[in-house]
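Checklist before submission:
- one chain only
- standard amino acids only
- sequence pasted in full

Submission:
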Amino acid sequence: MQTNVYNIAFAESTKQAYLHFWGCNIKCRGCVCQKVVYDFMLDRNMHLHMAEPKGTATAPERFMELDDVIETLVGLDVEWVLFEGQEASLDPAMPLIAEAIHRRLNTTNVLLTNGFKMPNLKHIDKVAVGLKAFGENKHIDYTGESNRTILENFPKIYKSGIPMMAETVLIPGYIDHDEIEKVAKFIASVDPNIRYQIDAYFKAGDNPWRRPTSEEVERAVEAARKHLNNVYAYKGTEPREFGVKSVFPTEEELAAAKLAPAVDARELIPA
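Returned file contents:
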């Protein structure tokens, strides 16, 4: 059975594996896959969030068979497995992978999802929902789709009893602190103790937006904390204390195929 998995990355020191699934049911204008298809956390891709996008990254052509995904994970000293995007919930193999590694490795399985589809969560231990925007018109403008189903599914996931969190990308002048506060109010209507993470936007795709300043991130955090008890931020400048390597394709295969991200290399050269 072929899966939608095209990339497995692994952080040996933290025993975390990252499964990347191709295909999505929304089209975010700021999707990272326009810029970097293979895991953004890879050591080879560090600092690319600061680079200017140039064109669109090449879509993957190789995908893994179900048995190969499972055996690859079994061969790693892994304790946490993150099922992430584009959108993992679209793959019929996703629940099968989660079940197999639960039984064979006793992993903690974390699903990162846009919440548009309610997948089988029997073998998922935590869910992180990316809430792009609260206003329906804003959501349609950013993703091409209404968020009504997402806002209906969010409390359904919560009521399932699976621990969950939410995150939103802060885009100055577009999905700004006022929109962040609306999202926070919605989350608080479900449970004010749900963890909420605000991620600083980095340039991806053909968009006019810029990265937020630290002050703008803090303003968004303050707005969200009016309604929620656990609000955090990722500014993209935090130091990383662990390495991440690609397992599939291997680092050697990535280098040989010259699977470079779509960025302007001049942006990576210090002035």
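Reviewer check: The longest strand covers residues 5-11.
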